[in-house]
């Protein structure tokens, strides 16, 4: 299952807002449609947002008719700025756009066809690299897990969120293939239910034994010693190891620490923000209160109630046992281990 594909100058993507009730694919050559899909989470998950944005720049280049170099540059720069405005937290978005920006800067031949090809090739490469990064993360991460383990995960960090098998869910599905996994517990992940709608759907497709829980059930499960490890994805990792991920991740990390359960974050190198010293500075997206007052379009709270709806939270590094990257597993102190990773990559 591919949540997003480049097909002859178009992007075809699965509208994740409709899952699991309907599997609707949308095909477009319009950057505005793509940007809106990212904004309303039809395309979501940090790595996939980056991949989509890279394709978005390629799409925009195909709309260029005039052969005027300066106009091309300013048009594509404004497209990059427009795509960068879709969501603020996942750093993969800015990382991928920066790669396209570099392609634009390096372009010297006065041929639009040449630039279009370069931008398409770069987007395809970003997509392919993410596939490979997921494979490596999965292979590294599975080594951390004991035999017959039960894992808790939050949100969706699987094939729907990446260019491959996923990060956290990549490790979990690899553990299943290797005969190590007993069961995955899935937090439903309010408000937008990425766990219930997306992770449960992915696990069902792959025939992996999964148990869906309401978000507030994790504590009792841990107390009953039913969780061997927690594995989550990430939207942005600061160099001190603080991890921004779907709101509610921090709650589970606190619970895991209290119960002595290892807590792992899994992410490709594109999710590490080497400019960000601590998680305190990570911009946290706030979303429309309707996402809390309504469930699947049906109001569940009284009209006019105040709502606070951050889409992400930051788990402090002292709650994190290890971070699984495509370059290997890093342990505290993360300021040292992540910097070492940067110098190698
Ligand atoms: O708001 P979303 O659904 O885009 O949030 C997704 C997450 O928080 C994921 O855990 C994260 O992006 C990692 S996906 C490999």
Task: Give a quick summary of the entry.
This protein has 345 residues and is α/β, with parallel strands linked by helices. The chain has two domains: 4-135, Four Helix Bundle (Hemerythrin (Met), subunit A) (Up-down Bundle), CATH 1.20.120.420; 137-344, Rossmann fold.
Features:
single chain, 345 residues, alpha/beta, Four Helix Bundle (Hemerythrin (Met), subunit A), Rossmann fold, 2 domains, seven-stranded mixed beta sheet, three-stranded antiparallel beta sheet, 11 helices, 15 strands, binds 5-S-methyl-1-O-phosphono-5-thio-D-ribulose
What layout of secondary structure does this protein have?
Elements: E1 4-7, E2 10-14, E3 25-28, H1 31-39, H2 46-62, H3 69-84, H4 91-106, H5 112-142, E4 149-153, H6 168-177, E5 181-187, H7 194-205, E6 210-213, H8 218-223, E7 229-232, E8 236-237, E9 243-246, H9 249-259, E10 263-266, H10 290-293, E11 294-295, E12 298-299, E13 312-315, E14 322-325, E15 328-330, H11 334-344
Parallel strand pairs: 4-5, 4-7, 5-6, 7-10, 10-14
Antiparallel strand pairs: 1-2, 2-3, 8-9, 9-13, 11-12, 14-15
The protein binds 5-S-methyl-1-O-phosphono-5-thio-D-ribulose (MRU).
5-S-methyl-1-O-phosphono-5-thio-D-ribulose is lined by residues 41, 44-47, 90, 155, 157, 161-162, 167, 194, 233-235, 245-246, 311.
Poorly predicted spans? none
Which structural category do the helix and sheet elements fall into? alpha/beta
Instruction: Specify the overall morphology.
Output: globular
- What is the CATH topology assignment of the largest domain? Rossmann fold
Number of separate structural domains: 2
Alpha-carbon distance between the two ends:
30 Å
Average pLDDT over all residues: 96
In this structure, how is the largest beta sheet organized?
A: 7 strands, mixed
Q: Order of strands side by side in the largest beta sheet?
A: 6-5-4-7-10-14-15
Residues in β-strands, percent? 15-25%
Order of helices and strands: EEEHHHHHEHEHEHEEEHEHEEEEEH
